[in-house]
Amino acid sequence: xxxxxxxxxxxxxxxxxxxxxxxxxxxxxxxxxxxxxxxxxxxxxxxxxxxxxxxxxxxxxxxxxxxxxxxxxxxxxxxxxxxxxxxxxxxxxxxxxxxxxxxxxxxxxxxxxxxxxxxxxxxxxxxxxxxxxxxxxxxxxxxxxxxxxxxxxxxxxxxxxxxxxxxxxxxxxxxxxxxxxxxxxxxxxxxxxxxxxxxxxxxxxxxxxxxxxxxxxxxxxxxxxxxxxxxxxxxxxxxxxxxxxxxxxxxxxxxxxxxxxxxxxxxxxxxxxxxxxxxxxxxxxxxxxxxxxxxxxxxxxxxxxxxxxxxxxxxxxxxxxxxxxxxxxxxxxxxxxxxxxxxxxxxxxxxxxxxxxxxxxxxxxxxxxxxxxxxxxxxxxxxxxxxxxxxxxxxxxxxxxxxxxxxxxxxxxxxxxxxxxxxxxxxxxxxxxxxxxxxxxxxxxxxxxxxxxxxxxxxxxxxxxxxxxxxxxxxxxxxxxxxxxxxxxxxxxxxxxxxxxxxxxxxxxxxxxxxxxxxxxxxxxxxxxxxxxxxxxxxxxxxxxxxxxxxxxxxxxxxxxxxxxxxxxxxxxxxxxxxxxxxxxxxxxxxxxxxxxxxxxxxxxxx
Length: 607
Ligand code: F6R
Known about the structure:
Blueprint: E1 3-8, H1 13-24, E2 31-36, E3 40-45, H2 48-55, E4 64-70, E5 85-86, E6 92-97, H3 103-112, H4 124-136, H5 140-148, E7 155-161, E8 164-173, E9 178-181, E10 186-189, E11 201-204, E12 210-214, E13 217-221, E14 233-234, H6 250-256, H7 258-266, E15 270-271, E16 276-277, H8 280-283, H9 286-290, E17 294-299, H10 301-318, E18 322-326, H11 327-330, E19 341-347, H12 353-364, E20 368-373, H13 379-383, E21 386-389, H14 402-420, H15 426-437, H16 439-447, H17 450-459, E22 465-470, H18 474-489, E23 492-497, E24 515-519, H19 525-536, E25 542-547, H20 552-556, E26 559-563, H21 571-589
Parallel strand pairs: 17-18, 17-19, 19-20, 20-21, 22-23, 22-24, 24-25, 25-26
Antiparallel strand pairs: 1-4, 1-10, 2-3, 2-4, 5-6, 6-7, 7-8, 8-12, 9-10, 9-11, 11-14, 12-13, 15-16
The protein binds fructose -6-phosphate.
Fructose -6-phosphate binds near residues 300, 347, 349, 400 and 487.
């Protein structure tokens, strides 16, 4: 949830750390803090701009330091609770992303031994524990190892001390840590974004790893082994990809990137003319996949809704029974899993803890574990046996847009991959793959309608509630459309199956309650039209998302937003883009910062 960044090298640390933090700002942002050896600790509520102001012109010559952006889990987001946290003597400084579950008992026993705590955080127990170990044996590394052995929970840690000013110890358990390897300088962060400008050579730590990093060296170890091999990887994203690219918000930039993102997801993965999908990431389990008789898709939020679209796609084309589960519920209902079950996690960040834990539960029960993940080197990507990367690039806006679309594209490829290995005919495969290949052009067309979408949002700007309805492929679209509006505009919206209206929600409808009806020209068109009429006869205003050329709909709906014609199974991709733009314009009209909706953060690494 939080962002961590550290530098140790031959340059001034302050500007590097502050710039790095600003690139990480999307990860967590209720407070920020920094420690540099000759400078001490500076902490502030708010974001990096506040911290920069506090540091002001008091330029520090320090050539190392640790920095943090906090998204509160224990204790109010104020200056005292902001990281870094120190020991009683102000000699050990700790920055932490994650949650220490046993911090209360640790704190109690440390307080009994005379330690004075100043914050309400779980993190502070770590610095005091290290102090306690240092009393027995003045070995910094061993004190950290001893401390880690007592912690229960998740952490991505940065630890330094006044006695070892250029050494930073980092450790990973459940929260991501990546080390950037430079020339005479090294970096540590919670993801590659703030490191990319300095080096593309990176080492991703695994759970249980601890690394001792100096300007010219890094050694990775575990709690028991003094040295283990963790090869470096070259990460090709550049920093420009992570900047706003001229748009006012990342959200708009990322929506506008959708055609390219679809190209990236499809690149090299379709065999034109044969209707086949070639998924290198699934090759290693291809034989095992043939015996799979049940697929469970797990995910949270928008990733869960992608999974719902995937259910229709994979059952329709892949010929395998599919269930979709909220990852946050999956392991609490004792799922029954056989060796012929595959569990597929869908996650942009690859760090969502509920999704990860659902996957681990499935693994314990012997399922084949697969992933559709965007963040290369993320925990879910590492813990799955096989999977397919989205290649959507970094998504900075908190609300998932381009990554969610690419999840549906990848699930379409998986449906084709599985289907052609089973009963899907070449003819159907060719038709579907041709439809997939035409998507970037169709989405580009949708993106040109952004002004028309904006004009409709202006008409409904005072509405306090919206209903989103759809059937079949458009049902998950309705759920996602409502989520997008809620999270960026804070206006109530509810997604519903269009056929369910008569079973309850119709009672809410009056002239003040608008409905967005997703009604493309598909196999359930007539039925959805009947549901729309149920609403209009009760004076409910209707905004329809319909297929170009549908003139009938203009006689029923108050407003119509069009998508181009495509394969029925791919209409969600086009209509979701319309609904993302709808949510964007509706919220920005209210002056809201859609990139950072209140109370939310990009990567949810707590349960
Ligand atoms: C909604 C949104 C969230 C995420 C969810 C899962 O716009 O972004 O609902 O989809 O938190 O995140 P990932 O995909 O990173 O597992």
